[in-house]
Design brief:
single chain, 1 helix
Length: 69
């Protein structure tokens, strides 16, 4: 094997390894962001439920039409 062939093969392996490492880093990063975002959405959902209950208590029961004759 010539020196040029060894250099090309080494370069190819290096590029593939670095691309795989970069892809792994991106996947880990996206998972971390997704986890944090999921927690924030869950907290917001809980808060919205509490707000809906509070509004329902303020409004009271629905008013019925009374027909007076």
């Amino acid at each position: 094997m010539s020196a040029e062939l060894i250099a090309i093969l080494t370069l190819g392996v290096t590029i593939v390894v670095s691309m795989l490492a970069g892809f792994g880093w991106v996947v880990r990063r996206v998972d971390a962001v997704d986890s944090r975002l999921g927690q924030r959405i869950d907290r917001l959902s809980d808060e919205m439920t509490e707000v809906k209950i509070a509004i329902a208590r303020l409004e009271g029961p629905p008013r019925h039409l009374s027909l007076s004759r």
